[in-house]
């Protein structure tokens, strides 16, 4: 019966994908546009001149290409409602991986804006032919295995999220280029503020590819935005949506009912992402459901080691917690994987919280 259900889902999925392709949902974005996709906010922005395209992938992933542009930005992350500071939102980090091939001036960066005051900011981990921003360093921050120089520049009567304005730019620029790893975004915000560079209420945090008077291409194959909603105190939960994790296995796919999440159908189906841990013991709570009345289960692995199993008794969403899990510190691979499929159930996953 399980195999028949899987075949049905695959046929439905094939028809659905065919419909999406026919209707152009998977077509590349080629003109200025913002929206949501895969649980992330995205934006394509280009001024006059040249061409570019952005193809949206699962979760935070996307690919980008640009040719002979003046200025272009491709970004995927999260927009906020401009009512909270970064301290009120929580500790923000991004686990990323990019195949980055610029030809000319370009940045691989965490990018965004704050308001009141209006600030455009960059945390640059790699670049093309020119290391930005061409100013004198105000200081440094040592974080995520590297040293970043901090800069502040002024833009006079330039485009912004509030129309043409004069505003400050804040920069952290890594001394040694890299195209993968963890970016502790909030640590840069704190370092800037220690230097008197005030941040206002948050508008956006996004992993971004920018091109300036250049051409190039990039494949953002990993982009996990993680927010510890407790703020800088670190005592509250870190929530990661299942649909923002990396899917793997023969059948794993997105689901939209009874919640936005993923469905794991068979042994080997999994979702995963990299989480940075400052301490070695946490509680892990997973919200999910079985696809019917049969008991469904999914294993928790951290750094490749089995840490416990989450169980869901029926099709009603519920939260199961594994307490006092010991694990390594620093960046750790988190996996939720099906290993005990008996062909009578599928497991649906909503989000993982780490306390």
TrEMBL record:
Keywords: Carbohydrate metabolism, Glycosidase, Hydrolase, Polysaccharide degradation, Signal, Xylan degradation. Residues 238-355 form the CBM6 domain. Pathway: Glycan degradation; xylan degradation. GO terms for molecular function: carbohydrate binding; endo-1,4-beta-xylanase activity. Residues 28-223 form the GH11 domain. Residues 1-27 form the signal peptide. Its EC number is 3.2.1.8. Pfam families: CBM_6, Glyco_hydro_11. The keyword Transcription regulation does not apply. One of its GO terms (biological process) is xylan catabolic process. InterPro entries: CBM6, ConA-like_dom_sf, Galactose-bd-like_sf, GH11/12, GH11_AS_1, GH11_AS_2, GH11_dom, Glyco_hydro_11. Belongs to the glycosyl hydrolase 11 (cellulase G) family. PANTHER family: ENDO-1,4-BETA-XYLANASE A-RELATED. This is Endo-1,4-beta-xylanase. It comes from Natronobacillus azotifigens.
């Amino acid at each position: 019966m399980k195999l028949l259900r899987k075949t049905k889902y695959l046929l439905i999925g094939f028809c659905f994908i065919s419909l999406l392709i026919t209707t152009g949902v998977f077509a590349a974005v080629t003109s200025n546009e913002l929206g949501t996709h895969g649980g992330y906010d995205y934006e394509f922005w280009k001024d006059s001149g040249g061409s570019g395209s952005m193809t949206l992938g699962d979760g935070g992933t996307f690919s980008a290409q640009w040719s002979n542009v003046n200025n272009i930005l491709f970004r995927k992350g999260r927009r906020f409602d401009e009512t909270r500071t970064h301290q009120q939102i929580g500790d923000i980090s991004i686990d990323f991986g990019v195949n980055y091939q610029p030809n000319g001036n370009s940045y691989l960066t965490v990018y965004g804006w704050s308001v009141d005051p209006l600030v455009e900011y960059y945390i640059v981990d790699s670049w093309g032919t020119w290391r930005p921003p061409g100013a004198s360093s105000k200081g440094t921050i040592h974080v995520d295995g590297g040293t970043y120089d901090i800069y502040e520049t002024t833009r006079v009567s330039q485009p912004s999220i509030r129309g043409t304005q004069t505003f400050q730019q804040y920069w952290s620029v890594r001394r040694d280029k890299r195209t993968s790893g963890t970016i502790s975004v909030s640590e840069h915000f704190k370092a800037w503020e220690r230097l008197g560079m005030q941040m206002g209420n948050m508008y956006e945090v996004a992993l971004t590819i920018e091109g300036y008077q250049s051409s190039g291409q990039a494949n953002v194959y990993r982009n996990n935005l993680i927010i510890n909603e407790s703020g800088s105190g670190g005592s509250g939960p870190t929530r990661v949506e299942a649909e923002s994790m990396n899917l793997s296995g023969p059948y794993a796919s997105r689901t939209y009912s009874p919640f936005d999440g993923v469905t794991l159908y068979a042994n080997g189906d999994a979702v995963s992402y990299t989480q940075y841990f400052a301490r070695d013991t946490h509680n892990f709570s997973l919200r999910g459901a079985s696809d019917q009345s049969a008991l469904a289960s999914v294993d928790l692995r951290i750094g490749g080691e089995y840490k416990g199993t989450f169980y869901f008794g029926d099709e009603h969403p519920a939260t199961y917690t594994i307490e006092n899990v010991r694990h390594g510190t620093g960046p750790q691979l988190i996996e939720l994987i099906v290993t005990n499929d008996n062909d009578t159930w599928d497991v649906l996953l909503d989000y993982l919280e780490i306390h």
